[in-house]
């Protein structure tokens, strides 16, 4: 049988697939798991620690699903384009999970610590390094690309815009300092 920590994580992941993370209910998660809140606090310091753990798990999953398939897409720039398209598809298929993965508050600590366990982010940083043809630090280019991807994903998620592959291509070309093709 699953250990208590794993059971809590799995129940939280299942809950997040259908609910907005901002409405997260520790009592509901624990009740669904057949556990008490005391069991939660014996395994996690607080909700933020659980969110951090879930973010890392989803990052690994996202890394496997998106980036491993994009490796056959050509050079690093084509991989970034494929990644953007796949992210759009994931936002359509799993909007609550993607909203959590992109926007939950535990990400702040992960970004600030540049945590190596956040596999998805690490892979994107490698792609950014490979496409960087500007005379700017990779971190600055990453911020531009990541901000665009997150912001664009949020607009799509809320139905404000629809995915436009030519817009994504032109924006990424411009960020990377490449000639528009």
How would you describe this structure to a colleague?
By secondary structure, this protein is mainly alpha-helical. Helix content is 73%, strand content 0%. It is built from 10 helices and no strands. Helix 5 packs parallel to helix 9 and helix 5 (76-93) packs across helix 10 (165-176). The relative contact order is 0.11.
Structural topology:
Blueprint: H1 4-16, H2 26-33, H3 37-43, H4 47-70, H5 76-93, H6 95-103, H7 106-113, H8 119-131, H9 138-157, H10 165-176
Helix pairs in contact: 1-2, 4-8, 5-6, 5-8, 5-9, 5-10, 8-9, 9-10
Task: Provide key terms for this protein.
10 helices; mainly alpha; 181 residues
Low-confidence stretches: none
Distance between the termini: 55 Å
Radius of gyration: 18 Å
Number of helices: 10
| Helicity level | over 70%
Q: Which structural class matches the secondary elements?
A: mainly alpha
Q: What's the shape?
A: elongated
Largest sheet: none
**How many runs of DSSP E, i.e. beta strands?**
0
| Helix-strand sequence | HHHHHHHHHH
User: Hey, roughly how much beta strand do the residues contain?
Assistant: under 5%
Oligomer: single chain
